[in-house]
Amino acid sequence: MNEPVVSVNNISKIFKGSKKKAKDFVALENISFDVFKGEFVSLLGPSGCGKSTLLKIISNLIPSTGGKIDIYNENETEKKIPQFGFVFQDSVLLPWRTALDNALFPFEIMSNKKKADEKHVKRLFELAKLNGFEDSYPRQLSGGMKQRVAIVRALSYNPEILLMDEPFGALDAITRDELNNLLLEIWHSTKKTILFVTHSISEAVYLSDRIIVMGTKPGRVLEDMHIDIPRPRDEDTKLSPEFFNYVKKLRVMLKNSE
User: Fold this and answer.
1) Is there a domain that residue 146 lies in?
2) Binning pLDDT at 50, 70 and 90, where does residue 22 land?
3) pTM for the full model?
């Protein structure tokens, strides 16, 4: 396989206790794995295993206590400044801006570093099935549509890696299934590398090439599991014996780790 685009090396994170409660909290301990170009990798585990913390460390939003994150160029192993798109559980759209203006907002933050490519962003609106809603305000959009705008915004400046922190966790089951299928379409079209946080076993199996299974107390890697289910996947995939077997294996693994 090619060189990784992200290499997580023995990452640990300790949150210092307060003066009254001196005990430190070990959130992550010796986390290591690689993510390769174009892969869809999920971080799966129960609440409190440090999935979101790890994603923030990878994106350099917070520092680690130990270990290091290496980000590599597309065609060489030389480290460079990481370029991520980040999608949070909440869409965090600016209510006074239209959907298109929200999607173009990262270019204002980057100022002269990167010129806005409105044609590219409008194509993303089409991929996200949002064409016709470019001039709509967040209050006029459903929860699922807001998350689609958030995905377009994260991809607007063409980052190499898309980080997604339980982006569909607050949505109803039907909308979540629709957005899972839409995300697979976008991933197939853009060829992006995706690192996706979820606590849903079935969601992780359905979306992923690989699943990094995490346990708690402290957050650690239980297994790096390859999902050998043919693509493209659709709703019938969830009825297959292969899908059921992966879900069952993961459920048992996580239960036994408690």
Assistant:
1) yes
2) low
3) 0.92
